[in-house]
Write a structure and sequence with these properties.
By secondary structure, the protein is an all-alpha fold. About 75% of the residues lie in helices and about 0% in strands. Helix 14 runs antiparallel to helix 15.
Length: about 325
Protein backbone atom coordinates (compact mmCIF):
# COMPACT_ATOMS: atom_id res chain seq x y z
CA UNK A 1 0.00 0.00 0.00
CA UNK A 2 2.72 2.47 1.00
CA UNK A 3 4.80 1.71 -2.09
CA UNK A 4 1.76 2.23 -4.30
CA UNK A 5 1.00 5.57 -2.68
CA UNK A 6 4.59 6.79 -3.09
CA UNK A 7 4.72 5.69 -6.74
CA UNK A 8 1.42 7.35 -7.61
CA UNK A 9 2.51 10.57 -5.95
CA UNK A 10 5.80 10.45 -7.82
CA UNK A 11 4.10 9.89 -11.17
CA UNK A 12 1.52 12.65 -10.71
CA UNK A 13 3.59 15.37 -9.00
CA UNK A 14 7.15 14.37 -9.89
CA UNK A 15 8.18 14.51 -6.23
CA UNK A 16 7.69 12.89 -2.83
CA UNK A 17 6.27 14.93 0.03
CA UNK A 18 7.91 13.80 3.27
CA UNK A 19 5.58 16.01 5.27
CA UNK A 20 2.53 14.61 3.51
CA UNK A 21 3.75 11.04 3.99
CA UNK A 22 4.26 11.35 7.72
CA UNK A 23 1.07 13.33 8.10
CA UNK A 24 -0.87 10.40 6.61
CA UNK A 25 0.98 7.86 8.74
CA UNK A 26 0.34 9.84 11.93
CA UNK A 27 -3.38 10.19 11.24
CA UNK A 28 -3.60 6.50 10.44
CA UNK A 29 -1.53 5.03 13.28
CA UNK A 30 -1.14 7.32 16.26
CA UNK A 31 -4.66 8.20 17.53
CA UNK A 32 -5.93 4.63 18.06
CA UNK A 33 -2.56 3.44 19.36
CA UNK A 34 -2.48 6.26 21.91
CA UNK A 35 -5.95 5.40 23.20
CA UNK A 36 -5.03 1.73 23.68
CA UNK A 37 -1.70 2.51 25.35
CA UNK A 38 -3.25 4.91 27.87
CA UNK A 39 -6.21 2.62 28.60
CA UNK A 40 -3.91 -0.36 29.15
CA UNK A 41 -1.69 1.52 31.58
CA UNK A 42 -4.65 2.89 33.52
CA UNK A 43 -6.39 -0.46 34.04
CA UNK A 44 -3.20 -2.39 34.77
CA UNK A 45 -2.67 -0.70 38.14
CA UNK A 46 -5.97 -1.67 39.85
CA UNK A 47 -6.29 -5.08 38.16
CA UNK A 48 -2.69 -6.35 38.37
CA UNK A 49 -1.20 -4.27 41.17
CA UNK A 50 1.35 -1.45 41.32
CA UNK A 51 4.36 -3.52 40.26
CA UNK A 52 2.74 -4.75 37.05
CA UNK A 53 1.22 -1.33 36.51
CA UNK A 54 4.63 0.32 36.81
CA UNK A 55 6.15 -2.14 34.35
CA UNK A 56 3.30 -1.53 31.89
CA UNK A 57 3.84 2.21 32.26
CA UNK A 58 7.53 1.79 31.45
CA UNK A 59 6.68 -0.34 28.43
CA UNK A 60 4.19 2.29 27.31
CA UNK A 61 6.97 4.87 26.98
CA UNK A 62 8.78 2.63 24.50
CA UNK A 63 5.55 1.76 22.68
CA UNK A 64 4.55 5.41 22.31
CA UNK A 65 7.72 6.23 20.36
CA UNK A 66 7.69 2.96 18.35
CA UNK A 67 10.85 1.56 19.95
CA UNK A 68 9.33 -1.20 22.07
CA UNK A 69 10.74 -3.94 19.83
CA UNK A 70 14.28 -2.70 20.51
CA UNK A 71 13.42 -2.53 24.22
CA UNK A 72 12.31 -6.18 24.22
CA UNK A 73 15.35 -7.23 22.21
CA UNK A 74 17.66 -5.47 24.68
CA UNK A 75 15.96 -6.89 27.78
CA UNK A 76 15.89 -10.41 26.37
CA UNK A 77 12.12 -10.85 26.33
CA UNK A 78 11.33 -14.05 24.44
CA UNK A 79 7.96 -13.58 22.77
CA UNK A 80 7.34 -17.32 22.53
CA UNK A 81 9.07 -19.08 25.40
CA UNK A 82 9.56 -16.67 28.29
CA UNK A 83 8.48 -17.93 31.72
CA UNK A 84 7.73 -14.38 32.83
CA UNK A 85 4.30 -12.82 32.21
CA UNK A 86 4.37 -11.11 28.84
CA UNK A 87 4.02 -7.36 28.59
CA UNK A 88 0.47 -6.10 28.11
CA UNK A 89 1.83 -4.04 25.21
CA UNK A 90 4.01 -6.72 23.64
CA UNK A 91 1.95 -6.78 20.43
CA UNK A 92 3.17 -3.24 19.71
CA UNK A 93 6.56 -4.66 18.69
CA UNK A 94 5.38 -5.33 15.13
CA UNK A 95 3.89 -1.86 14.80
CA UNK A 96 7.25 -0.46 15.90
CA UNK A 97 9.08 -2.48 13.24
CA UNK A 98 6.69 -1.19 10.59
CA UNK A 99 7.12 2.43 11.59
CA UNK A 100 10.91 2.10 11.79
CA UNK A 101 10.88 0.81 8.22
CA UNK A 102 8.70 3.70 7.08
CA UNK A 103 10.99 6.15 8.82
CA UNK A 104 13.61 5.52 6.14
CA UNK A 105 11.55 4.21 3.22
CA UNK A 106 10.48 7.57 1.70
CA UNK A 107 14.10 8.72 1.79
CA UNK A 108 15.11 5.55 -0.07
CA UNK A 109 12.48 6.24 -2.74
CA UNK A 110 13.72 9.82 -3.14
CA UNK A 111 17.36 8.68 -3.35
CA UNK A 112 16.59 5.99 -5.93
CA UNK A 113 14.48 8.41 -7.98
CA UNK A 114 17.36 10.92 -8.07
CA UNK A 115 19.75 8.41 -9.64
CA UNK A 116 20.05 9.00 -13.39
CA UNK A 117 19.75 5.48 -14.75
CA UNK A 118 18.14 4.30 -17.95
CA UNK A 119 16.00 1.92 -15.93
CA UNK A 120 12.55 3.04 -14.79
CA UNK A 121 11.94 4.00 -11.18
CA UNK A 122 10.03 0.77 -10.62
CA UNK A 123 12.97 -1.32 -11.81
CA UNK A 124 15.51 0.68 -9.83
CA UNK A 125 13.46 0.47 -6.66
CA UNK A 126 12.86 -3.23 -7.31
CA UNK A 127 16.62 -3.87 -7.42
CA UNK A 128 17.13 -2.03 -4.13
CA UNK A 129 14.25 -3.80 -2.39
CA UNK A 130 15.34 -7.16 -3.77
CA UNK A 131 18.86 -6.72 -2.43
CA UNK A 132 17.51 -5.56 0.94
CA UNK A 133 15.13 -8.51 1.09
CA UNK A 134 17.85 -11.04 0.32
CA UNK A 135 20.23 -9.63 2.91
CA UNK A 136 17.50 -9.38 5.54
CA UNK A 137 16.36 -12.97 4.99
CA UNK A 138 19.94 -14.19 5.48
CA UNK A 139 20.14 -12.18 8.73
CA UNK A 140 16.82 -13.70 9.84
CA UNK A 141 18.01 -17.26 9.24
CA UNK A 142 21.42 -16.79 10.86
CA UNK A 143 20.24 -14.75 13.81
CA UNK A 144 17.36 -17.10 14.62
CA UNK A 145 19.87 -19.86 15.28
CA UNK A 146 22.27 -17.69 17.29
CA UNK A 147 20.04 -15.17 19.07
CA UNK A 148 16.34 -15.95 18.52
CA UNK A 149 15.03 -13.16 20.76
CA UNK A 150 16.89 -10.47 18.84
CA UNK A 151 15.92 -12.11 15.56
CA UNK A 152 12.27 -11.91 16.55
CA UNK A 153 12.18 -8.29 17.66
CA UNK A 154 14.94 -6.63 15.63
CA UNK A 155 13.90 -4.69 12.51
CA UNK A 156 16.74 -6.04 10.38
CA UNK A 157 15.46 -9.64 10.06
CA UNK A 158 12.00 -8.21 9.26
CA UNK A 159 13.02 -5.83 6.47
CA UNK A 160 12.61 -8.54 3.84
CA UNK A 161 8.97 -9.10 4.80
CA UNK A 162 8.11 -5.45 4.15
CA UNK A 163 10.38 -5.29 1.09
CA UNK A 164 8.52 -8.21 -0.47
CA UNK A 165 5.29 -6.24 -0.17
CA UNK A 166 6.96 -3.36 -1.97
CA UNK A 167 8.17 -5.69 -4.72
CA UNK A 168 4.62 -6.96 -5.24
CA UNK A 169 3.40 -3.36 -5.58
CA UNK A 170 6.15 -2.62 -8.10
CA UNK A 171 5.11 -5.65 -10.17
CA UNK A 172 1.43 -4.83 -10.58
CA UNK A 173 1.62 -4.05 -14.31
CA UNK A 174 3.26 -7.43 -14.90
CA UNK A 175 0.93 -9.27 -12.51
CA UNK A 176 -2.18 -7.94 -14.29
CA UNK A 177 -1.13 -9.82 -17.42
CA UNK A 178 -0.99 -13.21 -15.71
CA UNK A 179 -3.61 -15.75 -16.87
CA UNK A 180 -6.58 -15.68 -14.51
CA UNK A 181 -6.50 -19.45 -13.73
CA UNK A 182 -2.85 -19.23 -12.62
CA UNK A 183 -3.57 -16.16 -10.50
CA UNK A 184 -6.49 -17.93 -8.89
CA UNK A 185 -4.40 -20.98 -7.97
CA UNK A 186 -1.65 -18.77 -6.54
CA UNK A 187 -4.09 -16.82 -4.37
CA UNK A 188 -5.59 -20.03 -2.91
CA UNK A 189 -2.08 -21.39 -2.37
CA UNK A 190 -1.20 -18.20 -0.50
CA UNK A 191 -4.23 -18.48 1.75
CA UNK A 192 -3.43 -22.15 2.44
CA UNK A 193 0.15 -21.17 3.37
CA UNK A 194 -1.02 -18.68 5.97
CA UNK A 195 -3.56 -21.11 7.44
CA UNK A 196 -0.94 -23.86 7.45
CA UNK A 197 1.52 -21.72 9.38
CA UNK A 198 -1.15 -20.73 11.88
CA UNK A 199 -2.19 -24.35 12.35
CA UNK A 200 1.09 -26.28 12.43
CA UNK A 201 3.63 -23.84 13.86
CA UNK A 202 4.16 -24.26 17.60
CA UNK A 203 6.36 -23.03 20.46
CA UNK A 204 9.12 -25.29 19.18
CA UNK A 205 9.18 -23.69 15.71
CA UNK A 206 12.39 -21.72 15.15
CA UNK A 207 10.94 -18.35 14.25
CA UNK A 208 11.37 -16.18 12.23
CA UNK A 209 14.22 -17.95 10.40
CA UNK A 210 13.11 -20.02 7.43
CA UNK A 211 9.68 -20.58 8.96
CA UNK A 212 8.57 -16.99 8.48
CA UNK A 213 8.73 -17.45 4.71
CA UNK A 214 5.54 -19.55 4.67
CA UNK A 215 3.08 -16.91 5.93
CA UNK A 216 4.97 -14.01 4.30
CA UNK A 217 5.05 -15.56 0.84
CA UNK A 218 1.48 -16.68 1.41
CA UNK A 219 0.37 -13.07 1.93
CA UNK A 220 2.36 -11.99 -1.13
CA UNK A 221 0.74 -14.70 -3.27
CA UNK A 222 -2.77 -13.63 -2.22
CA UNK A 223 -2.06 -10.03 -3.23
CA UNK A 224 -0.17 -10.96 -6.40
CA UNK A 225 -2.82 -13.45 -7.50
CA UNK A 226 -5.61 -11.01 -6.75
CA UNK A 227 -4.04 -8.33 -8.95
CA UNK A 228 -5.40 -10.09 -12.05
CA UNK A 229 -8.86 -10.22 -10.41
CA UNK A 230 -9.49 -13.89 -11.19
CA UNK A 231 -13.10 -15.01 -10.77
CA UNK A 232 -12.21 -18.12 -8.81
CA UNK A 233 -9.38 -16.86 -6.62
CA UNK A 234 -9.19 -16.51 -2.85
CA UNK A 235 -10.92 -13.14 -3.11
CA UNK A 236 -14.19 -15.03 -3.65
CA UNK A 237 -13.91 -15.83 0.06
CA UNK A 238 -12.09 -12.73 1.27
CA UNK A 239 -14.46 -10.26 -0.40
CA UNK A 240 -17.60 -11.41 1.43
CA UNK A 241 -18.96 -8.77 3.78
CA UNK A 242 -17.93 -10.26 7.18
CA UNK A 243 -14.29 -10.52 6.10
CA UNK A 244 -14.33 -7.02 4.63
CA UNK A 245 -15.84 -5.71 7.85
CA UNK A 246 -13.13 -7.38 9.92
CA UNK A 247 -10.58 -5.88 7.54
CA UNK A 248 -11.93 -2.39 8.21
CA UNK A 249 -11.49 -2.69 11.97
CA UNK A 250 -8.43 -4.94 11.83
CA UNK A 251 -5.98 -2.28 13.01
CA UNK A 252 -7.98 -1.41 16.12
CA UNK A 253 -8.60 -5.12 16.75
CA UNK A 254 -4.87 -5.78 16.47
CA UNK A 255 -4.23 -3.08 19.07
CA UNK A 256 -6.85 -4.29 21.57
CA UNK A 257 -6.85 -8.09 21.43
CA UNK A 258 -3.48 -8.72 23.08
CA UNK A 259 -3.84 -6.33 26.06
CA UNK A 260 -7.35 -7.67 26.78
CA UNK A 261 -6.49 -11.38 26.59
CA UNK A 262 -3.19 -10.98 28.44
CA UNK A 263 -4.67 -8.77 31.15
CA UNK A 264 -7.43 -11.29 31.91
CA UNK A 265 -4.99 -14.22 31.93
CA UNK A 266 -2.59 -12.46 34.31
CA UNK A 267 -5.49 -11.41 36.53
CA UNK A 268 -6.38 -15.12 36.79
CA UNK A 269 -2.76 -16.03 37.47
CA UNK A 270 -2.46 -18.21 34.40
CA UNK A 271 -0.43 -18.13 31.21
CA UNK A 272 -3.41 -18.61 28.91
CA UNK A 273 -7.18 -18.89 29.00
CA UNK A 274 -9.38 -21.78 27.85
CA UNK A 275 -10.58 -21.46 24.28
CA UNK A 276 -14.15 -20.63 25.32
CA UNK A 277 -13.02 -17.77 27.54
CA UNK A 278 -10.55 -16.54 24.95
CA UNK A 279 -13.38 -16.32 22.42
CA UNK A 280 -15.52 -14.43 24.92
CA UNK A 281 -12.80 -11.87 25.60
CA UNK A 282 -12.06 -11.68 21.90
CA UNK A 283 -15.65 -10.49 21.49
CA UNK A 284 -14.91 -7.80 24.09
CA UNK A 285 -11.85 -6.83 22.06
CA UNK A 286 -14.05 -6.68 18.98
CA UNK A 287 -16.46 -4.28 20.68
CA UNK A 288 -13.59 -2.07 21.79
CA UNK A 289 -12.15 -2.18 18.26
CA UNK A 290 -15.46 -1.11 16.71
CA UNK A 291 -15.77 1.79 19.16
CA UNK A 292 -12.18 2.88 18.55
CA UNK A 293 -12.59 2.62 14.77
CA UNK A 294 -15.78 4.69 14.71
CA UNK A 295 -14.97 7.26 17.40
CA UNK A 296 -11.20 7.73 17.08
CA UNK A 297 -9.47 6.03 14.16
CA UNK A 298 -11.75 6.90 11.26
CA UNK A 299 -12.85 10.44 12.26
CA UNK A 300 -9.28 11.64 12.81
CA UNK A 301 -7.90 9.83 9.78
CA UNK A 302 -10.46 11.50 7.51
CA UNK A 303 -10.76 14.84 9.30
CA UNK A 304 -11.09 17.61 6.66
CA UNK A 305 -9.17 19.99 8.90
CA UNK A 306 -6.21 17.59 9.00
CA UNK A 307 -6.20 15.89 5.61
CA UNK A 308 -5.24 19.04 3.73
CA UNK A 309 -2.80 20.28 6.36
CA UNK A 310 0.09 17.88 6.96
CA UNK A 311 1.71 20.03 9.64
CA UNK A 312 -1.53 20.00 11.61
CA UNK A 313 -1.42 16.20 11.60
CA UNK A 314 2.16 16.23 12.84
Amino acid sequence: VITGVLLRERSTTGSTSIRGFYGRRIRRILPAATVVIIATVVVSYPLLGPLSGEQTAKDSLWASVFLINLHFAATGTNYLASQLPPSLLQNFWSLAVEEQFYLVYPAIVIAVASISWRLSLRRRLGIVLGAAALGSLVVSIVQTSTNPTTAYFSPLPRVWELSLGGIVALSTEYLRRWPAPISAVLSWLGLASILGAGTFYSFSTAYPGWAVALPVFGAALIIAGGTAVPERGAERLLRIRPFQWIGLISYSLYLWHWPVLTLVAQRRGTGSLPVSESLLWLVVSLVLAIATYRLVENPIRRSPSLVGRSWASV
